[in-house]
Write a structure and sequence with these properties.
By secondary structure, the chain is of the alpha/beta class. It has twelve helices and eleven strands. It has a six-stranded parallel β-sheet, sandwiched between helices. A three-stranded antiparallel β-sheet has the order 9-11-10. Strands 7-8 form a two-stranded antiparallel sheet. The protein starts with a strand and ends in an 8-residue tail after the last strand.
Length: 319
Amino acid sequence: MEDRRYAVLIDADNISSKYISKILDEMTKYGVITYKRIYGDWTSPQAGKWKNELMENSITPIQQFRNTVGKNATDSTLIIDAMDILYTNNVDGFCIVSSDGDFTRLAGRLKESGMDVIGMGENKTPRSFRAACSVFTDLELLLEQSDEDNTEVKPKKKKSHNIIKPTKIQNAIIEIIQENDNKGKETDLGEIGNRLQKKYSDFDVRNYGYSSLSTFINEMDSFEMKKVNNTVLVRLKEDDNIKAQVKDYVIESVRNSKDSGVALGVMGQRIHNKYPKFKVKEYGYSTLSKFISGIKELTIEDVEGNKKVVVSNDYKEEK
């Protein structure tokens, strides 16, 4: 199978030269680089650090003078070049290296034309640009990984404020598994990886301190993995005991409230406080109200616009 071809376009105005070897190494995961261009004002003193890197890595510098103070002419030149390359039909994708959110529309336009768009930038890169890319990678992550590979003592990991929360990833995995369960099919590790990448372009297990998706998922309490032939299947852990405990707790709480019932929101908070690991989605329910509606002893009533959990009429005599 022929390697996919990529154009790597680098915004020198806000990317440090220390990242260049890591950028090119990371791109070997995707295919071959057919265009290597970097944009900036090479007459400025700040551009000096790039000069050796350009020669060593055979990167073509594109000169762009700063014609107007406060205006970023480099962005415009990179965007024009990207569109020119697009129309040559010589590449399968682009790698836009910048921490500038101004490239959001460019990334979106390239994707509209069927291009893969690999984004790379520092952790400060706006989410708009991250989301517009097919895949986005934090440059600090690549540098940190390289530093760890070359030192015996593991450096402290810098806290990243721009990554997807693990709980959000966990909920997305739960939804994938439940969707497949409803269709009567198993969920394999590869599908989870692909769908997470499509949902969150900057999802990367290395951001959480892992080198593989399997280890990342295996350490979550909600899942179990099983290898069948050469396929790794991911399933939800079944713990009917917790479900039964929560059910009994809800019934007891409502009965203790006498005839007043318990507001649905209050009940949700009580369950979370007593059983913090319990999540209704892990048991096939889309919402807490659906879970409670499945308890025959209880019902949900709308009282002046507020939902309350009360004892069902058929079970009131058992109070």
